[in-house]
Amino acid sequence: MGKRVYVVGHRNPDTDSIASAIGYADLKKRLGHDNVVAAMAGSPNPQTRYILERLGIGHPVYLADVHPRVCDIINPLPVTATIDMTLKEALELFHLHNIRVLPVVDGSNVPCGLVSLLKLSEKYLVAGTARSRSVEASLKDLAFCLEGTLLTGAPSTDVERLQLFVGAMTEESFTSRIAGHDPRTLLIMTGDRRTIQEAAIDIGVRVLVVTGGLEVARTLLDRAREQGVAILSTPCDTAAAAAKARLATPLSSFVDTKFASIGVGEPLEHLRLKLLQGGEPAVIAVEEDGTLAGIATKSSLLKPLPHALILVDHNELGQSVPGADRLEILEVIDHHKLGNPATSQPITFLVMPVGSTCTVVASLYREKGILPEPSLAALLLAGILSDTIILRSSTTTERDRETAAWLEKLSGLNSAEFGREIFTSCSGFAAHGSPDQAVRSDFKHFTVGDITVGIGQVEVVGFDEFFDLQRNLRESLKRIREEDRLRLAGLMVTDIYTESTLFLTDGMKELAHVMGYPQLEPQLYELKGVMSRKKQMVPHLLKVLGSL
């Protein structure tokens, strides 16, 4: 299954943004792309909620942000070891799964350490006679690693430090070699050398390993029991047994209990810093309850992210869902000016000079010879009527009108009647709940030079409600300007019937000298004939701001 692709509009989405996302996601699915999902980068405004409910269409998936997170690149089913494993079992896991680090967990799957194959090898293969002779193991694990059977003695689980000697010499040489060592710390390996076996039993060594699966005389077994000597029979030859004995060392001797960890929900960038700047061989990812979620190494950072984006109704990252700059952008479907991000490879980038992105999406349906379902045709029509203010805005093109007529037939709706229904049901400030929400409901940032401004727009039927709320709206604009660190915050209040706009601003009082429209009150301008933010308000405002 391929990566999930979200079709998403801009922040503070309007009807055109959400309708085009739903419409284009449906088109992609009907073209065979089952991994495409409609999404929204903010809560729908009252108008959009009304339309979706009116048409019986569910809300898109809400994306608060799309910053890649640790959970996006870790293996959700990591190979793990337990603290009571032998070195032999751990090395088998490294070999079987072709891994370089191994998290060690307790009985509750909580990480308690990390084993690196590199560090383990360095420790295991360290030079020095004393180190190579030492065997730290329990009798139970020693028998397990040598695939042997204890002929005498109990399979103790207590870890003991033993000194390994191979009895491949005469009894005199052997006795001389082990002289000075505590017999209860000796692990003697030999084949069918009866004299060596007898000597080892007589001095009371801790363990006598008889290799090659060779038989041990009953009389020697009896003497061993009397002396408290454990005799272990192994099918391995002496050379193999000597090598495998050290593999019985418990993994706990090699575990690094100081390890780096990170929560699965943390940004991927935090993991990148830990791996690249912290010098860690691996970082353990944990769930909220502290249990193991996965493990990440430097190679994990090269893993493809499981999500990608298709942007609709915008092409500037500043207007997109937070984190969009970290994901692959596959397509852009829009009707705004260009301010697009760079991409690593060619993509579908379709921007048309029309009044609505829904016009572009509907055109793609027609181009592919696919008819949208009636409810979806109605949704696309609603997007066009909303963005062009019932085809009255100066942004309206002949293509918008012709597309609206096509969608009328498919949906069974009349554009004029449906448009009036949309605006009369949800126009004005009351539908937004509070002045702050009204300003924020369709608020976009724009930049000219080093000046960043924000402009919102609310459609109304008459200006009475605006004048009643003007003082509160001024306070909201001031608060929003400070929160967003803007030079200017403005609100377009557009009367859809008189086709005129009142523009209320906060900040940059010098704007009054260059605005070019009548100022009714301080920082309140009357813009007759202005209905479009994109085609009329923003170009004019950016031009006059440039003169300042």
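Second entry:
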Amino acid sequence: MVKDLYSLADTDEKFEAMVNDHVRLSFYADFLYPLAEDSTLDRFYLEQPEGDFSPELDVARTKIWDVLGKYKMKLMKFSPASFLHFGTTREVLRLVTEEIGNYSVLGWQGRIGTNYGGSDFAVSNSYVSARATIGDGSYIEDSYIHHNAQIGKCCVISGLTVGKSANHETSESRQNDAAGSQTSQAESNADKMITIPDNTVLHGLKLTDGRFVVRMYGVCDNPKEAKWFGKTMDKPLWVKSLFPVRDSVEEALEATLAVGNKWLADRNNQNPEPDDLCLSLKDSYNMADVTQILPWQEKLSDRIKVESLLKAIDEHTPANEASEIFRAGISKRVTGDLLTRAERLDNTDLSEFGRKIRIYYYLSKITQKERMEDLCFDTIRDTVLQSALNKTGYCSKYHIAKDEVVERLPVRVNWGGGWSDTPPYCMEHGGTVLNAAVTLDGILPIEVTIKKIPQNKIILTSTDIGSYEEFTDVGKLQDCHDPVDAFALHKAALIACGVIPYADKVSVDEICAHLGGGIYMNTRVINIPKGSGLGTSSILAGACVKGIYEFMGVPIADNDLYNRVMCMEQIMSTGGGWQDQVGGLAPGIKMVTADEALEQKIVSTPLRINEDAMRELNERFVIIYTGQRRLARNLLRDIVGKYIGNENDETEVLYRIQQLAVLMRLELEKGHIDGFAKLMNDHWNLSTKLDAGCTNTCIDQIFLVIEDLIDGKMICGAGGGGFIQVIMKKGVTTQQLQERLDEVFAESGVGVWKTDFCFGE
């Protein structure tokens, strides 16, 4: 249609025939009428023209009819609907602030494309700092309003950056330059208050020469009148040169406000005397670089999304809800901006660490890219690891002090507070765990043997899986990230204890030379099925660390010992917390706690349980093997990810689990085993909320079969298989329990295992 219309005037001769004193074509009469379904050429000739009827007009209308007659316009009536006249500033302001509610049925609202959640003023495609002051009834569009902006009532702000971000601003603190080229204000002006009077319109424009102008006038001003903010001037506002041109939008805003404030304060009503670089409304429109308007709006829209996501993270909005900010998709520019901000955050600062991992995690949910989630968990790993390696690292001064060391440890049963010991939760909220060290069938099932050998090599063996390997290449010893590597744990222990460097290339010959010999290290887990849920892997790691330090004759504090094992798990990229190793390394029944901190200070406090209560607990507490191995699931990432993403009330559940650990301790120390059993049931219910996969048909069936014989039930470890634990009713024996299990699960491997609480030597 456009091409056909253009064909009517694509030469000077055609144009002169269609546009002259005798042919004054009207958009409504001459171009819309032929498109109507019931229109005819004869009636077209009779349509009232803009000028007079004439033969020339009939000829022009015939040509138009021939071109447009083949097209038809369809009119659709919307209901409910209303015609809105966007005329003066007053009408626009009234619509978006006072009358917007009248059109809520159409989905209209006074806040779109913004982080601002209040209702005192209207906002469109703008970021508004929570610390900015904005008067009621104002309208902000396509602008960035920082904390040091003070905007009056009933103002209109468009296309501006007002104020400057400060380093302590919650969601603006990580990047002081606003999006686009409109933000070059000096840092020294960051906290200078920018005050805008009531009833003021401010509109920023970039000019074709790269400079900026900010136009300022009153909401009620009429550009055709010679008045500015209601005071008389010598020229109409439209052509009066009032607005200074400057190199940046901030400078232009400051200069325009100075002119306007001076005019408002002038009681003598003298005409403003602008400098040579001032423009009028008319000139500024003509000189505006309109090609910069859309890019500015797009950059601002992206910046708003970035800040809105950061605000959502800071306010603990669940990741799935925060993803709605990007329901239309996320651009590479926004992703890059968020990643840059995350990279600038300091891992050694707890609050910045928390924000950093959440930027990565939230991005993983928004982009559906596993790489983002990897960045999150890599940051957690590196933070835990770096804290430990900074304290130890490779130590070339070690010298073998004993020819042989054998370290034997019990396993642990977990009672209360599980998962609260896992980074980053324990770092941000502290951890509280109640657990106990136990023997199985009267033996300590975790064993590590370390020997001095004359050869310059390191021999690693594992009796229970039948693996043996000799190492003379330090690179192979440093490679401990493969989850199927039989010696990943051995290698990680040597690195975490400083016997082998984490990354530096030092030859095995050199290492053995200063050690005074080679090393033979063998691990053994005695008669415990894989995936038991009894913390065997971490306790085995604890035995390795404890054995290595004793082998080197180096004393180590308990807290350093626990942290060194957590460091091992980060080296192996398996993650995990500190409760398992403490459960096996610290004897007896104990409460294990750590305050919130990046570097965990772990304290193990033995419970004071009287003899009668201890006797009753020994008689009533048993563990049962489910006959199935706990399936390897990506459980750590799942649970920790939900916490990082503030999903499903995860933090509240973890806090409640910590509370139960404290209450369990109280019941045990009061001698109330029944109360302890009841709390164990409560913990089990919370565990299923935390991870529905911790139970399955087999576990549920076992609990159902023995329901009338027990008062308390719970899984061991993360569940899904391995061992479960119960508190039997008073008078019930382990033999009765086994007989009941045999009735249903005969020859399936389901059975009671004998345990004793291990209180050390």
